[in-house]
Amino acid sequence: MLSKTLLGFLFLLVGVSSGCKSDKPKAAQSAADTAAPGPGKTEADVKAPDASASGIHWIENDYDKAMTLAKSQNKPLLIDMWAAWCHTCIAMQSGTLRDAGLAEQAEQFIWLSIDTEDPANTAVMALFPPKVWPTFFVVSSADASVQATQLGSCSVPAFRDLLTRGQHGHLAQLGDKLAPDSALYQLREGDRLWTESQYAEAAEAYAKALTAGGPTWPHAAATLNRQISALSKLDDLTACAELAGAEVTRMSGEHNSSGADFMDYAGSCAEALPAEQAIKLRTLALHGLDAIYSDAEASLSQDDRSGVLLSARGIAEALELQDKAQEYARTQKALLDAAVAAAKDPIEEMTYIWHQVEVHAYLKEGASILPWVESLERRLPGEYDPPYRKSWLLFQMERYPEAHEALKPALALARGARKGRMLDLDAEIYKAEGNLEMERQLRQATVAYYQGLDAAQVSAKTLAAAQAALAALGEAAAPNN
């Protein structure tokens, strides 16, 4: 699930989610296989998971090879855009994408895994730009057109639906055309427009798909979630709130990631409404999240369930229900502790690292989770996320010199836009210490670093935010070359 709700004390809340489609991320393969087990773990716990039962064979970071193969076999291409910092990517890798339920469709596609932090992948990212992580694209080998997308995590049935829609779209490109006024055609158009950042047009296409499909259309829930995400991307909070108000009751019956994400968008977009209406919408969204979480049979991973509680906590805070927010945090902490204990290997443990440090910091219990974070750092020396999260946690605990020191190995390992976030974190730590000169140097370094990245690796919005932070110190940022 993708979390959009902003928690007041956070400045680095990240969306989605770490992982790849080999057994483990490449940077961690040798470490996870050879490192000594952490506290409470046996040697068996740090071994790689069993071979995937899904029957999927991944091509890694080679779009030309994958597309050539897809063309030669007349198959569509499934592209997974992932990143090593993304906890939802790890959750998908260890769950849905390894499930035997995908085996029946696996041979109908060519499967491509793209590390979005690898500079060598900027060209394919320019063709298929992810806006959330992970993003899955089904691309027709006939003309490289996007036929279906999945934003963030989903259940096996939902992923099978993605594959089916993508396959139908691919066949349409080969001559089996869909009627332009059909629901599936408009859904496909919406996905294509969303990929091209034409969010207003995408929202309109999704609305047409919903009208054509009718109230019982099986893709309605996922389409509503895409529609509200497009409106959110537009920063059209009024339209977003109107859609949320009209559909929140209906979507509260969707006990899956689409339903949970919709409730989260509803809670965020409610700020566009007058106070009384905002309270009403947020209350309905909170009740919807409660219903989704309490359903033990809901199609949600443990990572998704943690995200539901994080969203619920944010909405409870917006409603000034502090006791309720604390209750959600305590429940989330217990859920995450159990998930970590049940993890099969350190990479799967790392799925939960961001939510673990965030909820412990929120509860002012950072010291209790720090030893586990440090154990992950020892067991996964090739991964930057443990030292990065450790630094953030120490920052929240106001242990500033240690936070600076913890960030060094993360900076040495990181690539892409995530390294810019680390430089920004270092600047925030210096700001908290009152060291204006070092803060300015780090702000300058952040802007320069972002400007040195390919446009496919960093958004204009991210660069503008870094430039604004530097300008706020009284020194104008360098122009974007």
Molecular structure report:
This protein has 481 residues and is mainly alpha-helical. It has a domain at 1-31 and 52-177: Glutaredoxin, CATH 3.40.30. It has 22 helices and five strands. The protein has helices at residues 29-34, 63-73, 87-94, 103-106, 122-127, 156-173, 183-195, 199-213, 220-233, 237-251, 257-269, 275-294, 302-318, 322-342, 346-350, 353-362, 366-379, 385-396, 400-413, 416-433, 436-452, 460-471; strands at residues 58-60, 77-82, 110-115, 135-139, 146-151. Strands 1-3-2-4-5 form a five-stranded mixed sheet, sandwiched between helices. Helix 10 packs across helix 11, helix 11 packs antiparallel against helix 12 and helix 16 (353-362) runs parallel beside helix 18. The protein starts with 28 loop residues before the first helix and ends in a 10-residue tail after the last helix.
